[in-house]
Target: Rod shape-determining protein MreD
Amino acid sequence: MTKYLLPAVVFLLFILESTFVRWVPGEVGPGEWVVVPRFSLVALLMIAFRQGRAAGVLYGLSIGLLYDMYYTGLIGVYTFSYALMAYVTGSSVRLLHYNIFVITLTCTLGVAAVEWIVYGILLIIGHTNEGLQTFAYTRFIPTLIFNAIFCVLLFKPLERLMEKQDLVDQSRV
Model:
């Protein structure tokens, strides 16, 4: 039962992204900021950092594909970017220490990279007409700030869940 709890939490966070968008007005703050919640991405980057790149890529492919199917008509953009960031994050485990500051920085950089990758791909194939400056000031910066705060709030509960799952997995060996 416990082994299904972490995927269920990530899926719940994926569902909460769309629910959150309905709760919060589309444009908030100064200059009509647009905040894009990336709850599931933040969680999968934490999982990749803690459990390694294989688990991270699996979650990245799964959530990215769900994201592509549910939110966009273009399959592959989020699947690729989520899996790539999970791989990079999971590969950095050996280089960085696991604490809230490193995780927050890593997740913020991961969200930033995904935002730029998706924006770049959509710009190249002509699926967006949003200018670079508009994207950077109205969407990119508010999204980073919001998701960094969410990462700090999610750190302890997700850490406890992963520890509980690790203890259950170790007891079965």
In short: Residues 132-172 form the longest helix (41 residues). The chain has a mean pLDDT of 90. Residues 2-10+36-161 form one domain.
